[in-house]
Each structure stands twice: as structure tokens, then as C-alpha cells.
Specification:
Distance between the termini of chain B: 32 Å
Number of strands of chain A: 2
Largest interface: A-B, 41 and 56 residues
Strand content of chain B: 15-25%
Helix content of chain A: over 70%
Structural class of chain A: mainly alpha
Strand order of the largest sheet of chain B: 6-7-8-3-9-10
Helix content of chain B: 25-40%
Number of helices of chain A: 15
Strand content of chain A: under 5%
Shape of chain B: globular
Radius of gyration of chain A: 21 Å
Order of helices and strands of chain A: HHHHEHHHHHEHHHHHH
CATH superfamily of the largest domain in chain B: P-loop containing nucleotide triphosphate hydrolases
Oligomer: heterodimer
CATH topology of the largest domain in chain B: Rossmann fold
Largest sheet of chain B: 6 strands, mixed
CATH architecture of chain A: Orthogonal Bundle
Number of strands of chain B: 10
Largest sheet of chain A: 2 strands, antiparallel
Distance between the termini of chain A: 66 Å
Number of domains of chain A: 1
CATH architecture of the largest domain in chain B: 3-Layer(aba) Sandwich
Chain lengths: ~350, ~260
């Protein structure tokens, strides 16, 4: 039942990498309010680029930088399909994800994987420099904190404000003079850039890049975002942005730990993906389920307004899902076709 | 100054559902003028506004704002000169962001949006001061999210945001229609205050005919994509809702007579 200490450290190391993935997914899923399926492909792109750079040029840091760029490019393609060619966001993501499979194979030089056992990685470098068993954790924490600070600073700039508002309300953003398509391009690119970075770290951590490693990564990212927000939502009533970013990151680590416990207690590893899918389903359904409970309805009518903010962000308030519809109440039905 | 020349727009062109929304429409709005627009459903009022703001592209005709030809300018580019308030109180604000963040986004209309700080201390002071003029107590709730505000407060905030960066043109599309009568009156009073500017033109669509006559300095009546009445000066002062109905045989669909 109890995990060995090294198993815990291993889960945390992996969780810290997945935290970067989760923050990337947070940017598209929460900030832009768009579930982006490119992630399953762009994380492999990141890891492939990182592995190729490590094995040929021997420069792990350059590998990470380039995996960031490569992931961003993949995201840009999705965003352009969505905004310029008017392909629905979900479909655009699926198309790019599919296409990336071939691209990733090309990056990997036609092989299904590149082993990095003989090549330098940031983890190997850190181990030799820091000389502690926690070097992997330290590297992970260092990169993660850097990413969180960058996220926080960026989302509080004028540009960041415009990006956040785009996910909230495109009408408002356009009438405030912001090009909402450009914001989508920026947001989806950045999101996938961080996903690519996570892929690059993953390849160096596992000492291998594999063409099939991307399957289900979106779901893992979503699960981390949702779990983090739900758990922190129990403790904090109001989550300012910085705390929310930490919550998402913590969600990823927590997710790895829960999985490790489950595997340790006898769950076959082949059931991993099903477990992930079930966790995300439960978390996403919690909003709908709590709306069905009689207790909640009562509370709503007492307060007498539709958009009571729901405690904890795990359950999405109905106003968030469809702002335009929930506002047009009664006789004034939105547009009357003039 | 807003100048609209021979503007036409039809929907579902070439199908059985073809509908002419704007039919060779001409309109000139002088600086400082506040025009109220009335007309039955399908008269083309909203299409006119959508063509001016860039949501719809006109089939033919030109739109000039001052000396600029804005006919082909994309929506977000025009927005630098145009403030808008929609009928739907949810449409005008980013609901999951705070009041001050919303204001900051609106205040940056004519500034570059880069890696500058989103809100500075100075911005905050200025917002607080100007918000207090609304008399709604919003200045003490600047760090609250907009989704916590009522519909009326949201419309007031949207109106405030629309005029924050000094636009050349203010477009109000039935912005009080979703509010209860008391709140609607408050928002209309605010509208009068904001629209009282020498440099800005205001266009307001309303279904309330007495509001249309009571506010602004000129009233136009639209029907089938054309302007069929243009009232200003003494003619307008002497006009009553009853006379309007009688003279123009206005179909009483959604127009409010009182």
C-alpha cells in the first residue's frame, strides 16, 4: 500500500513537468475558454525536438528553448486554421494533432523513438553538479517557478488583459479595439509553446522521446487544471490569479501522486488512461450534478439572481458556459433579427 | 462627424429569403449631435449600427467618420473611434475580470498593448475618481468581478467604458431594453450626461417612443431600410408620441407608446 520514498520523489519529479503542461492547458482551456486538442501532438513535437538537439548537438538547454518554439509553431497553425479559415477550434486542434504525427516522425528521423541514454540532459547535468538525490525535483521546481512568474507577469500586462478578456467576451474585446483573432493566435501559440517545453523536459527526464507519448496528454492537462482548482477551491474562497496558477501546478503533481498510489495498490498500468478519463469526466460533470441537487436551487432563488459565483472553480457556473444566452432573459431575447 | 452615403445591405442575397435591411440610406450626423432612432422590427436600425461599427460589411455605399473612410476598416480598428453599448448587459464587459481590469482594457483603446503594466497606481486613482461621478458606488468595488454586478450596473459600467477614451462616435443599441424601468431611467440619465459632448456624435436605438423624443437633439424614423422621417429643432419640440403614431401609421409591434 505505502509507496517507497523514491517512488514518491519520482512522482513529484514527473508531476513538476506535467505542471508546465497543465499551465499551458490552463491558458487555452481557462483563459481563452477553448479546449485545444493540439496538445497531444505538440507535446511530442517538443519532446522530439529536445531529443534531437540533445543527441546531435549535445545541448539540453538549447533543446528546451527549441521545443518551446516548436510547440508554439504547432499552436499557431491551430489558431490560424481556427481564426482565418473559420474551422471550429476543436476540429482545428484535431487536424493539427493528426498532421503532427507525421511531422513528429520526421523530426525523429523516421524512427519511433530516440533514446537519450548516451546524451547529456539537464537532469544528468543537474545530478552531477548538485550532487543530491533531489536534483530532479530542484530542476523541476526551478523551471516551474520561472514559468509561473512569467505567466503571472504576462497575464497582468495590457496584452495579458486583452488576452484574458478575449476568453471572457469577444464582443467586448473587439469593441475595445482589440483584434480578437490575434489574441487567439497569441494565446493558443503560447499555450502550446509551454506544452512543447513540458514535452522537451519529459524527453530529457525519461531519457527518451517516443512518437506515441502524446496520447491523452490533453486529458491529463485538463485533469490537472480541474483537480488543482477543485482542491484549492475547498480551502480558498477566492483565488487570485497567482494562487490559481499555483493550484493548477499543484493539481498536476497531485494527479501524479494519486496515480502512483493507485498503481502501487495493484491497478494495472494499462488502466491508466481509463482512470484519467474517468477523473476528468467526474470533475467536468460536478457542475451539472450540483445544479441538479435540490439544495443548490433553493440557494439560487433566495439570492434571486442567476449568476451567483460558485464556490471553487471546479464547477463551471452556468453563466460562464454561455454568457450570451444566460443574459437575455424574458421578453428581450438577445437579437430580434433587425 | 459621421457621414453615411448610399448605404445598402441585403441578407440572403439571391435566395427566397432575401431581405433588404438597408436601402440606399443617407445620413449625416454633425459633431455633438445626439440622434435617437426608432422604427419597427426589421426596419434596419440594428443593421445600420452593425454596418457603422464593422460587425457587418455593407454591400455598397460609404461610411465616413470625420475625414476617414471607414467602410472597409475591420471592426477592432474602428472601435478605436467608436464606443458601443449593446442591448445584452453581458456583452459589454468581461465578466470574469474585475471592474478595474475592464476599465483598463477600455482605457487602452488608443494606446499600444504590449508588456506595460495592465493597471498602474495612477490608472486606479483616475478610475476611482471618474467612477465616483456615476454615483453607483462602483468606485468602492473596483477589485470585484463584473459578474457580481447587476444588469443595470453592468450597463452603466459599459457606457462608462464606451466613453472612457473619448470616442468620436457613441452607438447605443437599445441599451436599456433589458433593464427594469427604474434602472433604465438611471442609465438613460447617465447617457444624457455622457452624450453631452461637443466632439462626439451619438446614435441611440430605442423602442420607447417617448424616450426617443425626450432624449437627444434629433429623431429619425426608419422603415424598410430607409429613413422616412427626420425630426429636429422646433418640429421635434412640438412632436408628441400620439402625433407620431398618427402621422406615420406606426405598427405597434414592439414599440412602446408611453
Amino acid at each position: 500500500m505505502f509507496m517507497s520514498f523514491t517512488a514518491v520523489v519520482g512522482s513529484v519529479e514527473l508531476g513538476l513537468i506535467y505542471a508546465i503542461l497543465a499551465l499551458g492547458v490552463f491558458l487555452s482551456f481557462r483563459t481563452l475558454n477553448t479546449p485545444d486538442l493540439t496538445v497531444d501532438g505538440s507535446i511530442v513535437t517538443g519532446s522530439a525536438v529536445s531529443a534531437v538537439v540533445c543527441s546531435t548537438l549535445g545541448s539540453p538547454v538549447l533543446g528546451l528553448l527549441l521545443s518551446f518554439v516548436a510547440g508554439g509553431l504547432a499552436g499557431a497553425v491551430t489558431a490560424l486554421l481556427n481564426t482565418k479559415l473559420k474551422i471550429e477550434a476543436l476540429l482545428a486542434g484535431i487536424l493539427v494533432m493528426l498532421g503532427l504525427y507525421s511531422v513528429n516522425l520526421r523530426i525523429l528521423g523516421g524512427r519511433a523513438n530516440i533514446p537519450l541514454t548516451q546524451s547529456p540532459t539537464i537532469y544528468k547535468n543537474a545530478r552531477s553538479v548538485l550532487n543530491t538525490p533531489y536534483s530532479g525535483c530542484l530542476i523541476g521546481i526551478g523551471v516551474l517557478i520561472l514559468v509561473i512568474i512569467l505567466f503571472y507577469l504576462f497575464l497582468n500586462t495590457r496584452l495579458g488583459f486583452a488576452l484574458r478578456a478575449t476568453g471572457d467576451n469577444e464582443y467586448m474585446v473587439r469593441s475595445a479595439g482589440v483584434d480578437s483573432s490575434a489574441m487567439r493566435l497569441l494565446g493558443i501559440s503560447l499555450s502550446n509553446a509551454f506544452v512543447g517545453l513540458a514535452g522537451g523536459m519529459l524527453a530529457q527526464y525519461q531519457s527518451t522521446a517516443d512518437i506515441n507519448m502524446g496520447t491523452g496528454m490533453v486529458v491529463i492537462g485538463l485533469a490537472s487544471v480541474i483537480i488543482g482548482e477543485a482542491v484549492f477551491g475547498l480551502i480558498f474562497r477566492n483565488m487570485p490569479l497567482l494562487l490559481r496558477l499555483f493550484a493548477v501546478a499543484a493539481g498536476a503533481v497531485l494527479y501524479r501522486l494519486v496515480l502512483a498510489v493507485a498503481l502501487n495498490s495493484g491497478m494495472p498500468s494499462t488502466d491508466l488512461k481509463l482512470t484519467s478519463a474517468v477523473i476528468v469526466t467526474i470533475a467536468l460533470a460536478s457542475g451539472a450534478v450540483s445544479d441538479m441537487l435540490p439544495g443548490r436551487k433553493k440557494k439560487k432563488t433566495i439570492l434571486g439572481q442567476g449568476d451567483v459565483s460558485v464556490r471553487g472553480s471546479s464547477s463551471v457556473p452556468s453563466s460562464r458556459r454561455n454568457p450570451a444566452r444566460s443574459a437575455s432573459a424574458g421578453e428581450n431575447s438577445g437579437k430580434d433579427g433587425e | 462627424m459621421l457621414k453615411i452615403q448610399n448605404l445598402s445591405k441585403r441578407f440572403n442575397s439571391g435566395t427566397v429569403n432575401e431581405r433588404i435591411a438597408l436601402n440606399d440610406l443617407n445620413l449625416t450626423v454633425r459633431e455633438g449631435e445626439f440622434i435617437t432612432i426608432i422604427g419597427s422590427n426589421g426596419a434596419g436600425k440594428s443593421t445600420l449600427m452593425n454596418c457603422i461599427s464593422g460587425v457587418e460589411r455593407a454591400d455598397s455605399g460609404r461610411i465616413y467618420l470625420d475625414t476617414m473612410d471607414i467602410t472597409r476598416l475591420p471592426e477592432h480598428r474602428r472601435s478605436r473611434y467608436i464606443g458601443r453599448v449593446f442591448q445584452d448587459p453581458m456583452k459589454g464587459t468581461a465578466f470574469d475580470m474585475t471592474i478595474e481590469q475592464n476599465l483598463a482594457i477600455a482605457a487602452c483603446k488608443n494606446k499600444s498593448r504590449g508588456f506595460q503594466k495592465g493597471i498602474t497606481k495612477k490608472d486606479r486613482e483616475e478610475f476611482r475618481q471618474r467612477l465616483s461621478l456615476l454615483g453607483m458606488g462602483l468606485e468602492d468595488r473596483m477589485t470585484q468581478k463584473v459578474k457580481l454586478l447587476s444588469g443595470g450596473q453592468r450597463q452603466a459600467l459599459t457606457l462608462f467604458m464606451a466613453v472612457l477614451s473619448g470616442p468620436k462616435l457613441l452607438l447605443l443599441d437599445e441599451h436599456t431594453a433589458a433593464l427594469d424601468p427604474g434602472t433604465a431611467k438611471k442609465v438613460l440619465d447617465l447617457t444624457d450626461r455622457f452624450a453631452d459632448s461637443d466632439s462626439m456624435c451619438t446614435l441611440m436605438i430605442t423602442h420607447n417612443m417617448s424616450d426617443a423624443l425626450a432624449h437627444g437633439s434629433r429623431t429619425i424614423l426608419m422603415d424598410s431600410g430607409r429613413i422616412i422621417m427626420d425630426l429636429k429643432g422646433r418640429d421635434r419640440d412640438n412632436m408628441t408620441v400620439e402625433m407620431l403614431v398618427e402621422q406615420f401609421d406606426i405598427a405597434n409591434d414592439r414599440m412602446l407608446l408611453k
